[in-house]
Recover the amino acids of this structure.
């Protein structure tokens, strides 16, 4: 387990994927529901990122949220952070739990992972719900190298409490007060034994996003797809490299590549959409799934 010190105040289980990989997950809503939503968190995040959204969906769907390997209470150790690796783990998790009628709900990096999973294992995925997804914004080779140069495990490890708080604040138009427990968890992680490994995984995952682009393959995705973006997202598009582009352009340009995609843009909303506007996001998901 990556962070045994982490306190989850909700029920969770562990799925043993193989002798090295285990996945922590929470399973909410009746298994009798015909459709399952599988929630995949973003970079440096974990299951609690979904805990304001799932209660609004649990009466409609079986809701399962996971910690990716190397995050939260899933397996410890360092891995490549590649998008294909994450997609493989998700495919095996789905089969381990014998899940059917699975729609992926991915936030940020989780959106990119959802796209990779749909491309690699299309028979396992019914629909895609992408919340401020990575993967629709494209980068030149020079831009990729620049991002890699200013990022490293050491930089992640050296973040001050003030920097950690700021990194949360920029996810919102107006940061909700109930983000505090997540900020406190992130600050406490610096004291825990596997923190350096975690920082390496975060850096590897960032590189994995850059090294495994999916934009040119979006036309191969057959699943109906909902793309959600906050109009005030300050993280996508990249605030330095693509400062003259707005989130709507990323959403619409990306959507045009899919076979079956619709876009919904949310007013007065930033990057962490499911935490800032959970009622609106849940309504969008319910309507999309019913169509």
């Amino acid at each position: 387990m990556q962070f045994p010190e982490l306190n989850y105040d909700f029920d969770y289980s562990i799925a043993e994927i193989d002798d090295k990989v285990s996945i922590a997950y929470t399973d909410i809503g009746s298994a009798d529901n015909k459709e399952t939503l599988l929630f995949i968190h973003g970079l440096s995040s974990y299951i609690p990122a979904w805990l304001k959204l799932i209660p609004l969906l649990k009466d409609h769907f079986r809701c399962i949220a996971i910690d990716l390997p190397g995050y939260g209470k899933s397996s410890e150790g360092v891995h490549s952070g590649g998008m294909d690796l994450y997609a493989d783990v998700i495919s095996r998790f789905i089969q381990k739990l014998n899940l059917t009628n699975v729609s992926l709900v991915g936030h940020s990096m989780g959106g990119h992972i959802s796209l990779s999973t749909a491309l690699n294992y299309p028979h396992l995925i019914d629909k895609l719900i992408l919340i401020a997804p990575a993967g629709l914004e494209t980068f030149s080779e020079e831009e990729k190298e620049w991002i890699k140069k200013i990022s490293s495990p050491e930089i992640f490890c050296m973040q001050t409490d003030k920097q950690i708080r700021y990194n949360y604040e920029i996810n919102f138009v107006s940061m909700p007060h109930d983000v505090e427990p997540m900020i406190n968890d992130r600050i406490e992680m610096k004291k825990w034994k596997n923190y350096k490994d975690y920082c390496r995984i975060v850096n590897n995952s960032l590189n994995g996003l850059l090294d495994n682009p999916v934009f040119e393959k979006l036309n191969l995705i057959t699943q109906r797809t909902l793309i959600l973006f906050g109009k005030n997202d300050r993280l996508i598009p990249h605030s330095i490299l693509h400062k003259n582009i707005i989130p709507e352009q990323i959403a619409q340009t990306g959507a045009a590549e899919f076979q079956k995609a619709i876009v919904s843009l949310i007013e007065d909303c930033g990057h962490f959409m499911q935490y800032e506007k959970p009622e609106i996001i849940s309504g969008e998901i319910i309507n999309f799934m019913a169509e």
About this structure: The two ends are 40 Å apart (CA to CA). The chain has a mean pLDDT of 97. The first strand starts at residue 13 and ends at 16. The chain has one domain: 13-290.
